[in-house]
Amino acid sequence: MATLFRAAPSARAALRASSVKPAIAALASTSFVRGKATLPDLSYDYGALEPYISAKIMELHHKNHHQTYVNGLNSALEQIGEANESGNQSKAATLAPLLNFHGGGHINHTLFWENLAPASKDGGGEPSGALKSAIDRDFGSFKTLQSQINTALAGIQGSGWAWLIKDKAAGTLQVVTRANQDPIAGNYVPLMGIDAWEHAYYLQYQNRKAEYFSAIWNVINWKTVASRLEKA
Amino acid sequence: MAPVTYKLPPLPYPYDALEPSISKQIMELHHDKHHQTYITNLNKALEVSATATASGHLHDAAAQLSAIRFNGGGHINHSLFWENLSPASSPDAQPSAAPKLQAAIDSTWGSLDKFKAAFGTALLGIQGSGWGWLVKEAGTGQLRIVTLANQEAVVVGDTPLVGVDMWEHAYYLQYLNGKAAYVDNIWKVINWKTAEARYTESREDVFNVLKGNI
């Protein structure tokens, strides 16, 4: 994770100029400036994912919820830095849950916005190329992957996320869930995430979360997922 | 032996009775849909578990434990929650309806306001979905604030007195991301009479609402 905080200005400019933004590099380039996290811009309008995700949800989710994680992350980092500098490493250690929660919230949402796209543009449809081959190899078919992810989403007890990940050790794709804002880490590379917190759908779908889980497939950006797999 | 089937307990007040602290729409969805779903899934898990147990399929019974814990906790938490809320206009919503409990709160936290501040901090510190409870500790009888993730419930030892639901579905339609305002406003609709009864009666009686709705 440490590399996320160290993108050189020239590298950031180069990334901004490039039309294809690699997932993790985009985090480094746009949302971690000089060790401070900032809210990344969405690459589409708040209303662009309608009717599958309403403009109001997108606006609150991005401008308020994601911003709160960014603020919480910066505050946790600052407190940890202060504790460390003053020689109070045990205090720094007790702040780890805050760092995990808010840092995870920032990472997860940043990846989420990028793996969504308007249905009229790159959203929806089915994966192709190397991504399709990997999905067919590891799940049998795209339909099976979808149903595995929907089952995983429905089974989350409380707040959390479902992810399609690549296990770097095994070389295979897998579906995993994470509670609250726990980020994907270790040998797993996040390819595509779906937010199953109630704030991600409640204003539009209320308790009918299965409808949200089936609607979101219309706005999944498979180009982003394919490019993450390429770099994984 | 067929397991008991649980039923949705009726709300002890109309859906709009907690306005403006909690909107009618939230109460309808929360009670009729969310709480009912926990009960439906609990009954399903209990039945599968009972059938598996009866035929010696322990592994199939064990596989239901997570669903029983989650959905059973959801049923217990919501059943207790409805009862520890009250319309603001009722005398039950006045702290004076809980004289013994108030005395214990004063001696524990210094004042009701200090207790509310401590409870509020605990509620707002929950990461993800969960509940905050004022409980009476087993053994010592002392008051304590606990937070529990998801639908974990106060079922071992301690006695639950006042619960506050911090799942987003409990406030989002009205308060959006402003959960601090929800926490502020819920104090106006706490049923102190229920809290006093839970504090003074036997622990078993606190859970009567569950037995009463099967």
UniProtKB/TrEMBL annotation, chain A:
<dbReference type="GO" id="GO:0030145">
    <property type="term" value="F:manganese ion binding"/>
</dbReference>
<feature type="domain" description="Manganese/iron superoxide dismutase N-terminal">
    <location>
        <begin position="38"/>
        <end position="117"/>
    </location>
</feature>
<dbReference type="InterPro" id="IPR019833">
    <property type="entry name" value="Mn/Fe_SOD_BS"/>
</dbReference>
<dbReference type="InterPro" id="IPR036324">
    <property type="entry name" value="Mn/Fe_SOD_N_sf"/>
</dbReference>
<feature type="binding site">
    <location>
        <position position="61"/>
    </location>
    <ligand>
        <name>Mn(2+)</name>
    </ligand>
</feature>
<dbReference type="InterPro" id="IPR036314">
    <property type="entry name" value="SOD_C_sf"/>
</dbReference>
<feature type="domain" description="Manganese/iron superoxide dismutase C-terminal">
    <location>
        <begin position="127"/>
        <end position="228"/>
    </location>
</feature>
<feature type="binding site">
    <location>
        <position position="199"/>
    </location>
    <ligand>
        <name>Mn(2+)</name>
    </ligand>
</feature>
<dbReference type="InterPro" id="IPR050265">
    <property type="entry name" value="Fe/Mn_Superoxide_Dismutase"/>
</dbReference>
<comment type="similarity">
    <text>Belongs to the iron/manganese superoxide dismutase family.</text>
</comment>
<feature type="binding site">
    <location>
        <position position="109"/>
    </location>
    <ligand>
        <name>Mn(2+)</name>
    </ligand>
</feature>
<dbReference type="InterPro" id="IPR001189">
    <property type="entry name" value="Mn/Fe_SOD"/>
</dbReference>
<dbReference type="GO" id="GO:0004784">
    <property type="term" value="F:superoxide dismutase activity"/>
</dbReference>
<keyword id="KW-0049">Antioxidant</keyword>
<keyword id="KW-0464">Manganese</keyword>
<feature type="binding site">
    <location>
        <position position="195"/>
    </location>
    <ligand>
        <name>Mn(2+)</name>
    </ligand>
</feature>
<dbReference type="GO" id="GO:0005739">
    <property type="term" value="C:mitochondrion"/>
</dbReference>
<dbReference type="InterPro" id="IPR019831">
    <property type="entry name" value="Mn/Fe_SOD_N"/>
</dbReference>
<protein>
    <recommendedName>
        <fullName>Superoxide dismutase</fullName>
        <ecNumber>1.15.1.1</ecNumber>
    </recommendedName>
</protein>
<comment type="function">
    <text>Destroys radicals which are normally produced within the cells and which are toxic to biological systems.</text>
</comment>
<keyword id="KW-0479">Metal-binding</keyword>
<dbReference type="Pfam" id="PF00081">
    <property type="entry name" value="Sod_Fe_N"/>
</dbReference>
TrEMBL record, chain B:
<comment type="subunit">
    <text>Homotetramer.</text>
</comment>
<feature type="binding site">
    <location>
        <position position="165"/>
    </location>
    <ligand>
        <name>Mn(2+)</name>
    </ligand>
</feature>
<feature type="domain" description="Manganese/iron superoxide dismutase C-terminal">
    <location>
        <begin position="100"/>
        <end position="198"/>
    </location>
</feature>
<dbReference type="GO" id="GO:0030145">
    <property type="term" value="F:manganese ion binding"/>
</dbReference>
<dbReference type="GO" id="GO:0004784">
    <property type="term" value="F:superoxide dismutase activity"/>
</dbReference>
<comment type="function">
    <text>Destroys superoxide anion radicals which are normally produced within the cells and which are toxic to biological systems.</text>
</comment>
<dbReference type="Pfam" id="PF00081">
    <property type="entry name" value="Sod_Fe_N"/>
</dbReference>
<feature type="binding site">
    <location>
        <position position="30"/>
    </location>
    <ligand>
        <name>Mn(2+)</name>
    </ligand>
</feature>
<comment type="similarity">
    <text>Belongs to the iron/manganese superoxide dismutase family.</text>
</comment>
<dbReference type="InterPro" id="IPR019832">
    <property type="entry name" value="Mn/Fe_SOD_C"/>
</dbReference>
<keyword id="KW-0479">Metal-binding</keyword>
<keyword id="KW-0464">Manganese</keyword>
<dbReference type="InterPro" id="IPR050265">
    <property type="entry name" value="Fe/Mn_Superoxide_Dismutase"/>
</dbReference>
<keyword id="KW-0809">Transit peptide</keyword>
<dbReference type="InterPro" id="IPR019833">
    <property type="entry name" value="Mn/Fe_SOD_BS"/>
</dbReference>
<feature type="binding site">
    <location>
        <position position="78"/>
    </location>
    <ligand>
        <name>Mn(2+)</name>
    </ligand>
</feature>
<dbReference type="InterPro" id="IPR019831">
    <property type="entry name" value="Mn/Fe_SOD_N"/>
</dbReference>
<dbReference type="Pfam" id="PF02777">
    <property type="entry name" value="Sod_Fe_C"/>
</dbReference>
<dbReference type="GO" id="GO:0005759">
    <property type="term" value="C:mitochondrial matrix"/>
</dbReference>
<feature type="domain" description="Manganese/iron superoxide dismutase N-terminal">
    <location>
        <begin position="5"/>
        <end position="86"/>
    </location>
</feature>
<comment type="function">
    <text>Destroys radicals which are normally produced within the cells and which are toxic to biological systems.</text>
</comment>
<dbReference type="InterPro" id="IPR036314">
    <property type="entry name" value="SOD_C_sf"/>
</dbReference>
